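Hi V.,

You were right to ask for the full record rather than a summary. Here it is.
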Amino acid sequence: MPKVDRMNKTGLLRAIVETLEAELDAAVREARAASDAATDPDSKAENKYDTRALEASYLARGQARRVTELQESLRDLLAFAAAPPPTGGPAALGSLVTLETPDGPLAYFLCPAAGGAEVPHEGRTITLLTPASPLGRKLAGRRAGDTVAAHPGRPAWRVLAVE
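Predicted structure:
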């Protein structure tokens, strides 16, 4: 079995929070710009077929929703980061799971929010998974050496490490 270096989870949590904060800052700027465009007098319809204002309002609403989602994810992660991360034992919330795949090792961090986000840390890209995601559910309770059928009809992936 290939060797997997142990990772600093406190540093990983800090990197996740920093990544989400940067995403939130960008989303706030985008939401403001979309809102400004929706309320700009130049967006007023010139005829009954002109939908610029309507489209701008849809975009503004979607951007505002994204800001709210990021704020909630950040709040959940900050609360989660305040507790010491688990070590040892089977995969659970707070575990870093490394899988051996045909494309090489992949690292997943089981966390309460921001599933699907990728965070660079210590020379690796860590993908965040929530326990409710399909792969998160399959990883729960797994230990190093176990296998996970990630995709139907494809070879199972082997769990290299659970930290």
